[in-house]
Specification:
60% helix, elongated, two-stranded parallel sheet, two-stranded antiparallel ribbon, mainly alpha, 4 strands, 414 residues, 17 helices
């Protein structure tokens, strides 16, 4: 009966209490009080997993996804710092592999549990109850629950990240090439006015991307998603932007012009300003993820290319770009604005020689970048990044507060 009430309660949006996910705290305290972690058989874990699974079926509701990302990360942190295993109770290597196949990537949380069990707690402010803070011997159902919860956290994280990719992808196609001014517009007004209008049009596309980034940042922060996870989302998104823009640049000669370099450079400045606005806490290393497109654009707009040596280009101007990528952009470059030329024929010849040597040494000849859609964190990373959580001072929802079976939740730390 109490399990039914718990499931009914956490199926609702319980919100947050002083920045703490109420549902996660309620679930954790109930499981701890009922000693569910220590039993060989129980159905409560499956019911909780099913509840989360049903809640995230609406894949495009980012607010709901962020809510459950916050709750699942909080609950996983509490489990990580509470559950300990002995050899017999832990998952065998064979069992661990089959579970990983069923639930996606399973991190080293369980394998690391002996070390985490030895880690001293930081007093009763951390987790657990009213001064009786303890670790519990976790049985197989509890360990499986932790793995399933990890798989759900990864899934929710990936859904939010991929939703953001889908929203900005159409705009990225508009950002890589400067809009061309028509002959009619040149007749109606001066060339400078037409160019100014074109620049405003292009920047508008970049500003639309910035607006989307800001919307996602606000949703994640409103749901108290740990800043560690937020920064991972945006770092991967900026890596995606880097891949899409850079590959488009190297696949389309019309994009490798001097004026197009100027347009993209102005757009990248909008993203740099967003990173400053978001702060390093939430943006992480996002700006650094754009290094390929930034250096490629730097090459397009630099003056006196014929005077540049290969050493200057590879060491100073474009150190992150491969010879294959530099050769591609150098041979496709054209100047529609000033009529300037690309690098010297000597530099081009040197690049060809180096590429031949690379092919003889089995170095990849591909000049395109690959998008990385892996999960860029582990359970231990989350545990180390999140601060202490006091679960006893959380405001209880009315459904729980008014039921005599949950009086243990009413106790608060003095």
């Amino acid at each position: 009966e109490n399990q039914d009430l718990l499931i009914k309660c956490v199926s609702q949006d319980l919100g947050f209490s002083s920045g703490r996910a109420i549902a996660a705290c309620v679930i954790y305290r109930c499981l701890l009080h009922w000693r569910s972690f220590e039993v060989e058989r129980t159905g409560v874990f499956d019911r909780i997993i099913q509840t989360i699974g049903s809640a995230i079926e609406v894949q495009d509701n980012n607010d709901k996804l962020a809510y459950w990302l916050s709750n699942s990360s909080t609950l996983l942190l509490l489990l990580q710092r509470t559950l300990k295993t002995t050899g017999a109770a832990g998952l065998t290597p064979q069992r661990r592999r089959s579970t990983a196949a069923s639930f996606g990537r399973v991190f080293s949380g369980i394998r690391a549990s002996p070390q985490s069990a030895a880690r001293p707690f930081l007093g009763s402010r951390l987790i657990g109850g009213l001064g009786d803070l303890r670790q519990v011997e976790a049985k197989y159902p509890a360990l499986l629950f932790k793995q399933q919860l990890t798989a759900f956290l990864e899934k929710i994280y990936g859904m939010i990240r991929d939703n953001l990719k889908k929203e900005i992808s159409p705009l990225l196609g508009l950002c890589i090439q400067a809009p061309r001014t028509s002959r009619a517009s040149l007749i109606k007004g001066s060339r400078s006015q037409a160019n100014a209008l074109a620049q405003q049009t292009l920047i508008a596309h970049w500003q639309s991307i910035v607006k989307i980034l800001t919307n996602y940042l606000n949703v994640l922060k409103a749901n108290y998603v740990p800043s560690f996870l937020i920064s991972k989302v945006f770092t991967q998104i900026f890596s995606f932007i880097n891949v899409q823009l850079f590959n488009s640049l190297l696949l389309r000669r019309e994009c490798c012009s001097f004026s197009n370099g100027e347009y993209v450079k102005a757009g990248l400045a909008e993203l740099e300003q967003w990173c400053i606005y978001a702060t390093e806490e939430y943006a992480g290393s996002s700006w650094e993820e754009l290094k390929h497109i930034r250096q490629a654009v730097g090459f397009l707009v630099i003056h006196q290319k014929p005077k540049k040596t290969l050493k200057e280009i590879t060491n100073d101007l474009c150190p992150v770009l491969s010879i294959q990528q530099l050769y591609r952009i150098s041979t496709m470059y054209w100047d529609d604005k000033y009529g300037t030329h690309t690098v010297s024929s000597e530099v081009i010849s040197s690049m060809r020689i180096m590429m031949t040597e690379d092919s003889n040494n089995a170095v990849s000849s591909s000049f395109l970048l690959d998008d990385d859609s892996s999960i860029p964190f582990s359970v231990d990373d989350i545990s180390k990044s999140m601060t202490e959580i006091e679960v006893t001072d959380v405001d209880m929802p009315p459904l729980i507060r008014e039921n005599s079976g949950f009086t243990f939740l009413h106790q608060r730390k003095d």
